[in-house]
Design goal:
It is built from 5 helices and 7 strands, in the order ββαβββααββαα. The structure holds FE2/S2 (inorganic) cluster.
């Protein structure tokens, strides 16, 4: 396995070629907050909580660490002012699914209209059902503010016997939607 060396927050970190920045950071014990990431699932890149600042060939930019692959010489900063500003905004936008990060990012409430059980569209329930359970009984239905997970019409209602996606749902939407 070919290893590449990157810098994370000023420290050299070795990671296998093809790994993401998030995987390299986790293996090195560097915490990056995530919402839609789950090691059992394919990266999805929906929530943007995992944004970090990278420097490559003298240029700096923000990338989703759960999607961006490591490469030799890459420099990564996980907690810059820009990163913190973005995460703070995401905590507000995806409230209440992000409430667990509120203290860390100094957010006490959301300026946006949110409900107790608003879906954050992280897709964890849908992806878990498809990728791990191989059931595919959930999908994301609708557009814009109407977009929500829904049961595929005509699918066997065996969710009650499974319910494994409930524990993945940070917003409580999956549980609340069952009434
Ligand atoms: S964890 Fe990277 S975008 Fe959600």
């Amino acid at each position: 396995m070919e290893l590449v060396t990157i810098q994370i927050d000023g420290k050299p970190v070795q990671a296998p070629q093809g790994a993401t920045i998030l995987q390299a950071a986790k293996a090195a014990g560097v915490g990056i907050p995530t919402l839609c990431d789950d090691a059992r699932l394919e990266p999805y890149g929906a929530c943007r909580m995992c944004m970090v600042e990278i420097q490559k060939r003298g240029r700096t930019r923000l990338v989703a660490s759960c999607l961006y692959p490591v490469e030799e010489g890459l420099t990564v900063q996980t907690e810059t002012d820009k990163v913190t500003r973005i995460r703070r905004m995401i905590v507000e936008l995806l409230w209440p699914a992000t409430q667990r990060f509120a203290k860390q990012y100094g957010v006490t409430h959301s300026r946006f209209t949110t409900g107790l059980a608003d879906c954050s569209l992280c897709g964890l329930c849908v992806r878990y059902c498809a990728e791990v359970k191989k059931k595919n009984v959930l999908y994301l239905k609708g557009r814009g503010i109407d977009r929500k997970p829904a049961l595929v019409e005509g699918s066997p209602l065996d969710c009650a016997n499974c319910g494994e996606c409930f524990s993945l749902c940070g917003s409580g939407w999956v549980v609340a939607s069952r009434g």
